[in-house]
């Protein structure tokens, strides 16, 4: 989170603390000083993703191949300078940050509602000033960097602490990120991702020493300074009275500065006169309205102490430097072997959310680009909940006394106030003979176990009867079909036109370069297709979770969005499909795709029919539907349209005609 206003304050009021640096020169100096240790920059990836995502389109579900190419170029630029990168990602939301996490999620909901209003009004994407990252971008960034051969770490606690500690312990040349907490930790230099010029490898270094000089403080004051301005431990709401007192006595008050800047200067002036001692800290705690928790300030200061560091504000015998505090005996999972493997895979970014479930029985999911006015499509959190319940059952099969522990879910969707977690009951998937135990799925070897992993994975998506057909497909296509069939089963408003668009995307995506996809221009943007793109991408993360739980029947690389999805391409196919274009146009004139198209579509329709779900045709034409029209949707509307498409395999090229097809095109 950082300290509100500190980054801007440094730029405006302490320009000497903002130094332009050439990272090549910094690296060269390091080589001279430490010839046996290559220069390393530790990257706070979570604060970088919004700067990395530079494709023009961001609302349609993600330009994943373009993004992968951007990450590759980023890595190459540092490799060319002989600089090694280590990427850190937040692996948990700590309890002390939950309130702030909720506050941000609710704010993001408002921003997303504004984006959808704009798209419905203008039929195009808003400007970059309204930018939010595509759904699940941090998750897929982690796996992208790993697939590009980078060291990628998923943390066991707050990422900024682990980043600062790693930078100090490994003598890194700097931290690359955008979080003012790195000005407070006494660690290696802090470089700005926002100011980075990649082609020249030049950026701004924020100097703690120069900041201290400008404020009349020492480095040991900075943790207390941060706490008295309000941070993740000490809420700002407790500090208003203290700030007023500081402002009254401050000699630096300047009417040309805003209030926050004057508060920063006044707090710095106040603590510069306070002796650096534990008794001073206790005195400050007595001054503040901390209620029953009088140790808040002490804990706040301590949170900035890295391993091996001490502070004059805290007696040495009281320092208990942060470490990963979760003990095996307090974890939901009591099997040491399973717990240890889950933990190792978590740290090495090899699994997805599994350790969070096995350790704390808790999981969260941030905002997705979903239209709260579209009542036809449930929130993705609800669409994929039945699959997650099966995944929880696979993971928590050894519940005490045969009863499953409940899983706490913090999932953002319209109508969820996030006042407390939802308690979700694991549900055993339907499998002949029951679900294999976790030890078998994770540790056993042999073709029999591989089959069990695959069938358990499919059972999480209610497709255990389709194993033979899916195994005949390429792995990314099989996973795509699994997700799409599940989605069509769960959301009754999805139509044949939606299905055609999704299937056309995976087939037409093959062989398309990032550059070609970047050149694709959309005449307009459909808000419902934006919503469906976000829902689909969130579904891919559910595939990752199931794959991790079931012992990796798929390679994780086969479950990545750049293998099966592109946001702009989906928009194009969605609009073509709903406007009744020919099969020839939908598949870009590539006749070799006609049979695969019919096969995949037929497979999904048959899987749905087996579950009593009939997919109806419901073309929306070019009439972009507004939120109010969507709220008036009547399910009986489906019955007024043509019957469903469930062609037999021997007659895949016939049996379904587009409404208003182009006469010269092949029909489907």
Q: What would you note in describing this structure?
A:
With 668 residues, this protein is α/β, with parallel strands linked by helices. Helices cover 45% and strands 7% of the residues. The protein has 29 helices and 10 strands. It has helices spanning 6-13, 23-33, 49-52, 64-80, 98-122, 137-147, 159-169, 208-215, 222-229, 240-249, 259-272, 278-287, 296-302, 336-347, 354-360, 380-383, 385-395, 438-443, 447-460, 467-471, 475-490, 496-509, 514-518, 527-549, 561-564, 567-578, 583-586, 594-610, 627-631; strands spanning 18-22, 40-44, 84-89, 151-154, 174-177, 190-192, 202-206, 362-365, 407-411, 422-424. The strands form 2 sheets. It has a 7-stranded mixed β-sheet with strand order 1-7-6-5-2-3-4, sandwiched between helices. Helix 21 crosses helix 24 (527-549) and helix 21 crosses helix 28 (594-610). The longest helix has 25 residues, at 98-122. The chain starts with 5 loop residues before the first helix and ends in a 37-residue tail after the last helix. Mean pLDDT is 90; it is low at 625-667.
Entry summary:
This protein has 668 residues and is an alpha/beta fold.
The structure class reads alpha/beta
Question: What distance lies between the first and last C-alpha atoms, to the nearest angstrom?
Answer: 52 Å
Beta-strand portion reads 5-15%
Give the uncertain stretches in residue-range form. 625-667
Oligomer: single chain
Largest sheet: number of strands, sense, barrel closure: 7 strands, mixed
Q: Give the helix level as a range of percent.
A: 40-55%
Structural shape: globular
Radius of gyration: 27 Å
Order of strands in the sheet with the most strands?
1-7-6-5-2-3-4
The counted number of beta strands is: 10
